[in-house]
TrEMBL record:
<dbReference type="GO" id="GO:0008168">
    <property type="term" value="F:methyltransferase activity"/>
</dbReference>
<feature type="domain" description="Methyltransferase type 12">
    <location>
        <begin position="46"/>
        <end position="130"/>
    </location>
</feature>
<keyword id="KW-0489">Methyltransferase</keyword>
<keyword id="KW-0808">Transferase</keyword>
<dbReference type="InterPro" id="IPR029063">
    <property type="entry name" value="SAM-dependent_MTases_sf"/>
</dbReference>
<protein>
    <submittedName>
        <fullName>Methyltransferase</fullName>
    </submittedName>
</protein>
<dbReference type="GO" id="GO:0032259">
    <property type="term" value="P:methylation"/>
</dbReference>
<dbReference type="Pfam" id="PF08242">
    <property type="entry name" value="Methyltransf_12"/>
</dbReference>
<dbReference type="InterPro" id="IPR013217">
    <property type="entry name" value="Methyltransf_12"/>
</dbReference>
Length: 259
């Protein structure tokens, strides 16, 4: 999706690569988190900030009714059982009530995340479940293996610039760990928290995701110390299978509305 304060655009040339990498990297974990707390069969489901619609499409094969929203929904394909709507969860009109509300890699990026969370909670039917997932930088060294010190150095400097660039746009690296308390403060019950991480090998989906983001973040990365030469070296390194990175933690929180 794209909006002031959100770094990545569905209109960019890199959008297809960005969403393909996300689907390969995270869809299995998203499927598991949904089916662990709710059988979507026959349910009314809402996917907020649906991106290219991989989760919304998966739900459409299983649920009774699925609404996918995004401020720029141009990447979501038409398919039976799926309604697509242009909508901003912070400022848009209420969407109704749903048995499942899902949002992935959304709240951590939104400067007005408290308002977005409030609107998603309001969209829950009695007993409905909210599931969100966001990245946070994993503790420890980012570069686990690289072919040489120069490659390790540029990747480490890239991560610092990447986080600073996103933070300047409203990203909150600590949000995923505050989400459970925010869910409970919003009145949700049965709150669960899980995290998932793997190493990201050069050329794999995690590294392809980072590569797709570099052109979109280029001005901000430059403002935070990366030269054009650094960015070119980073792109090359992210495609090198000799590189192994400590992949970002994907942190999911779920909670249930009172029945």
């Amino acid at each position: 999706m794209t909006r002031p304060g959100y770094a990545f655009s569905n209109a960019s040339e890199q959008s297809a690569a960005h969403h393909d990498a996300l689907a390969e990297l995270l869809d299995r974990q998203s499927h598991e988190s949904i089916t662990d707390v709710l059988d979507p069969a026959g349910r009314r489901c809402l996917d907020v900030g649906a991106g290219a619609g991989s989760i919304a499409g998966w739900l459409a094969d299983r649920a009774g009714e699925v609404l996918a929203t995004d401020v720029a929904p141009r990447r979501i394909p038409d398919r039976p059982g799926l309604t697509v709507r242009q909508h901003d969860i912070v400022t848009g009109d209420p969407l109704g009530h749903f048995d499942l509300v899902h949002a992935r890699l959304l709240l951590g990026h939104l400067p007005r995340r408290a308002a977005a969370l409030r609107q998603m909670v309001h969209a829950l039917a009695p007993g409905g479940v909210l599931i969100t997932g966001d990245f946070t930088v994993a503790p420890g060294a980012f570069v686990l293996s690289a072919p040489d010190e120069g490659t390790a150095d540029v990747l480490s400097r890239y991560l610092t610039a990447h986080v600073r660039a996103l933070t300047a746009l409203g990203y909150d690296n600590d949000w995923p760990h505050r989400a459970p308390a925010a869910f409970e403060a919003a009145g949700l019950t049965d709150v669960h928290f899980r995290s998932y991480a793997t190493g990201w090998r050069g050329g794999g989906p995690g590294c392809r995701l980072l590569r797709a983001g570099i052109p979109q973040l280029r001005p901000a990365l430059s403002a935070h110390g990366l030269t054009d030469e650094d960015m070119s070296a980073t792109v090359a390194a992210l495609g090198d299978p000799r590189v192994l990175l400590n992949g970002f933690l994907f942190v999911q929180t779920s909670g249930r509305a009172p029945a």
